[in-house]
Design brief:
The chain is built from 11 helices and 5 strands, in the order αβαβαααβαααβααβα. The chain has helices spanning 3-8, 29-42, 57-67, 74-90, 96-101, 112-119, 125-131, 133-138, 151-161, 171-187, 203-218; strands at 17-22, 47-51, 105-109, 143-148, 194-198. Bound molecules: adenosine-5'-diphosphate.
């Protein structure tokens, strides 16, 4: 293992890490997930990049709902996300928990804070937190990196890069979702490690801010 892994002693530990990116659509999560994974891989780390909703059967159903081709009650959608997440964690071949336990750094684009932020538009956030309690008991992120970008900027980015916007990609919803994220971070500040990163910056500066946080995390023992 090269520099940073040696420097921080990761190669001595058997356990990996679970790093989550959160943010509204268009905030740069996909971009930063790729850059972080490239950087970790170049240092010799074993990494796995993944995202929610997953590509599994429940995740595919969710995607059809998000695209607008199927409709469902918001409580159904929230429950599907929680079920997709449990499978994402526990799948015997590609499950996140097994990977982290066996030394892989898993970088995930969206996890349960997305549920808290998106579904609490329609129902009490406490209900959504409860619906995901099983997932939180299975695995909490070692760190959640929230890429915080002005919703107007995100919408502009989406409009220039996509032909079709999903059901939550409207300015009022995006503003509300950002506010819900901040409320969820406050609500769970005693239980979760969340870092808010200014995403109204260049891709490179954001990637460096992310890297600093990940290096700090690597230097700490896992429980
Ligand atoms: P998300 O996965 O959060 O929806 P993406 O990473 O797909 O966001 O980024 C959305 C769009 O914005 C893409 O076209 C991407 O190239 C662009 N983008 C990402 N980060 C930045 C940035 N810091 N500055 C300007 N454009 C960006």
């Amino acid at each position: 293992m090269a520099a940073i892994m040696k420097e921080v002693g990761l190669e001595k530990k058997s356990k990996g890490r679970f790093v989550v990116f959160e943010g509204i659509d268009g905030s740069g999560k996909t971009t930063q997930t790729q850059l972080l994974c490239q950087r970790l891989a170049s240092q010799g780390a074993r990494i796995f990049a993944t995202r929610e909703p997953t590509n599994g059967p429940v995740g595919q159903l969710i995607r059809r709902i998000l695209s607008g081709s199927l409709s469902a009650d918001q409580r159904t959608i929230a429950s599907l996300f929680a079920a997709d997440r449990t499978e994402h964690l526990m799948n015997p071949e590609s499950g996140i928990r097994h990977m982290v336990d066996s030394g892989t750094i898993v970088v995930c684009d969206r996890y349960y804070f997305s549920s808290y932020a998106y579904h609490s538009q329609y129902m009490d956030m406490e209900w959504v937190i409860q619906a995901n309690q099983l997932n939180a008991d299975i695995l909490k992120p070692d760190i959640t990196l929230f890429i915080d970008v002005d919703p107007q900027i995100c919408l502009k980015r989406l409009q220039t890069t996509r032909n079709h916007l999903e059901i939550y990609e409207k300015i009022d919803i995006m503003k509300q979702v950002r506010a819900n994220y901040l409320a969820a971070f406050h609500r769970l500040e005693d239980q979760e490690r969340v870092v808010v990163i200014d995403g109204n910056d260049s891709v490179e500066n954001i990637a460096n801010a992310v890297w600093s946080q990940v290096c700090l995390l690597m230097q700490q023992e896992t429980t």
